[in-house]
């Protein structure tokens, strides 16, 4: 899907909202007021519009960054699996040195750029699959809501452990099954947030979301 076509559909099927943990950011999302919210999958113009929702792990990371601006001062940030782009936008808002929003789905990158424009912020984007990469050019890595599958979680966690030896790794998650006790024992809790009611409704009963870093 080309950017021009996506933009037209994105504006038609999303609404700007601040009803989330980071009201400092105005984000266009698929809300309960949008017909696409309850439409059957075969009626969606998008294959899998995960970028149209502000997932709880992403909300936790963005909230943490907005509250802890000093943690990313002069840092080069990589937001992996950026979705709607909120984590990257939060870093840009507190003046991180460089912010790159990364996702293998071009639609997520288009959504991120449009949300960045909405907030008068600038982020760079990348569609390269960077999982397993040494990411030498970055100081901090954001990972939100990606521990949803055990096989993928194994790959992801091994990579993050290696990265954490040289850079800050922030993991946002509401308690998905891929973030096992064994993995949490290798992590340190940085923050926990109570989720807004609308986010609880979207996420199958999760009530809180957290930010972790890896022990080094």
Sketch the topology as an H/E string, one letter per element: HEEHEHEHEEHEHEHE
Helix content: 25-40%
Please give the CATH class: Alpha Beta
Distance between the termini: 42 Å
CATH topology (fold) name = Rossmann fold
Tell me the Rg in angstroms: 16 Å
Put simply, the count of helices is 7
Quickly give the structural class.
alpha/beta
Give the neighbour order of strands across the main sheet: 5-4-3-6-7-9-8
Q: How many β-strand runs?
A: 9
Silhouette: globular
Secondary-structure arrangement, i.e. CATH architecture: 3-Layer(aba) Sandwich
Q: Superfamily at the CATH H level?
A: Vaccinia Virus protein VP39
Number of domains: 1
Provide mean pLDDT, rounded: 94
Describe this structure as you would to a colleague.
InterPro entries: Ribosomal_L11_MeTrfase_PrmA, SAM-dependent_MTases_sf. This is ETFB lysine methyltransferase. GO terms for molecular function: protein-lysine N-methyltransferase activity. It holds the Pfam family PrmA. It is a single chain. The protein is α/β, with parallel strands linked by helices. The chain has a single domain, classed as Rossmann fold, CATH 3.40.50. Helices cover 31% and strands 21% of the residues. The protein has 7 helices and 9 strands. A 7-stranded mixed beta sheet has the order 5-4-3-6-7-9-8, with helices on both faces. Strands 1-2 form a two-stranded antiparallel ribbon. Helix 1 packs across helix 4 (106-118) and helix 2 runs parallel beside helix 3 (86-93). The longest helix has 14 residues, at 150-163. The relative contact order is 0.16.
């Amino acid at each position: 899907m080309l950017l021009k076509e996506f933009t037209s559909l994105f504006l038609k099927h999303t609404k700007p909202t601040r009803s989330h943990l980071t009201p400092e950011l105005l984000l266009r999302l698929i809300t309960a007021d949008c017909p696409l919210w309850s439409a059957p999958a075969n009626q969606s113009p998008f294959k899998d519009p995960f970028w149209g929702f502000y997932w709880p792990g992403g909300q936790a990371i963005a909230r943490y960054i907005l509250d802890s601006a000093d943690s990313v001062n002069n840092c080069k940030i990589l937001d992996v699996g950026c979705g709607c782009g909120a984590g990257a936008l939060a870093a840009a808002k507190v003046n991180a040195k460089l912010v790159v929003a990364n996702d293998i789905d071009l639609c997520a990158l288009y959504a991120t750029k449009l949300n960045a424009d909405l907030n008068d912020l600038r982020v760079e984007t990348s569609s390269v699959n960077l999982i397993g990469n040494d990411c030498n050019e970055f100081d901090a890595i954001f990972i939100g809501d990606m521990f949803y599958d055990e096989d993928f979680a194994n790959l992801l966690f091994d990579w993050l452990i290696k990265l954490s030896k040289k850079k800050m790794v922030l993991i946002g998650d509401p308690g998905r099954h891929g973030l096992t006790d064994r993995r949490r024992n290798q992590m340190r809790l940085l923050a926990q947030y109570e989720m807004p009611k609308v986010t609880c409704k979207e996420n199958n009963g999760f009530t809180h979301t957290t930010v972790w870093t890896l022990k080094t």
